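Following up on my earlier thread - several people asked me to post the actual chain instead of describing it. Fair enough. Here it is, all 354 residues.
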Amino acid sequence: MFLPLFLTGCPDSTQQPPPTGTVQRETTARRPHHFTPVAFRDLPGWRDDDVRYALQAFRQTCRATINYSGQVVADRALLEEKCRLMPPSSADVATVRNWFEAHFQPYKVRCPNGSAQGLFTGYYSPIIPACRQRTAECNEPLMAPPADGNFRGIPREEIVRRQIGRPLFWANIVDVQNIQIQGSGTIRLEDGSLVKLNFAGVNDMPFRSIGEQLRERGIRPAGGMSADAVWEHLKQNPGLAREVINNNPRYVFFRVAESRDVIGAMSVPLSRIRSIAIDNTIYSLGLPVWVDTTLSNGQRFRRLTIAQDTGGAIRGWIRVDLYFGEGDEAFQFAKGQHAQGSKYIFKPKPHVRR
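Reply from S.P.:
Thanks for posting it. Predicted structure:
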């Protein structure tokens, strides 16, 4: 549900999954042919990461109802065993690292074409200004899904024009598109009060990149093609904004959240720089994933993360969306995150007592 302005990545990221029989569902006895088992010592930066933070995020996986579907599916009994055997929150980093090493086997992931590199983008939870009623500035509804559930396959422009859904609040159309791209966010109303909105549904229409539409028209904002430059340019050109946003048929609905937590596709809170979104048509969510990529500031990012989210544009064996948190600071990282990287899936293994 989190979609970048521009789409690119691993060469297989826009292809359909291989036909049945080409890729095996993961079991303890077999694995997809482009998974290579590796030793923990061969994970780049493994001993430098404070994996206690990843364990905190993994606890959320253990509280979730896991959908064991996709082409790579964890062994349910083994994963449930790991949840029962987790070390306490007070455990030191060495104890937690040893626990992961004793209970999981890392696999380096390659695309079907053999490439070990894929696209790593970023997302965040924005805070946008909003109104309780429609105004000249707050000109687009943030809607809850209709009670009858009949919205799939209907394009964005028609949903808004016919108000197929229940308006919760109103905001500038550019800000509405931004929060829909991120999949959740917080609104700041006229009186300064904050309301958290979480993902509540999507119309299952394809995403059409806003940035690519501008490129096709030969439009380059003054600040370049970064996310903030694109949004600012659209706000200064409201006619263009409505046209290109309505040309993106995908529409996301929201619900008012009871807490300020950002909730992902597993219906549990996401953890800043420890939760990631991956392709849930390939993987069942919930597993630990070692990632090796570069942040927008040039810093190397080698961390143990947990796959707890997904998105319409997150497609491919090594496609990853890093969750950076909430607000302006998170946006500064997420907006420019567009780098190649490698990915290692951790599969639960039987625990051998020593």
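The chain has two domains: 35-122+264-348, 125-256. That should answer part of your original question.
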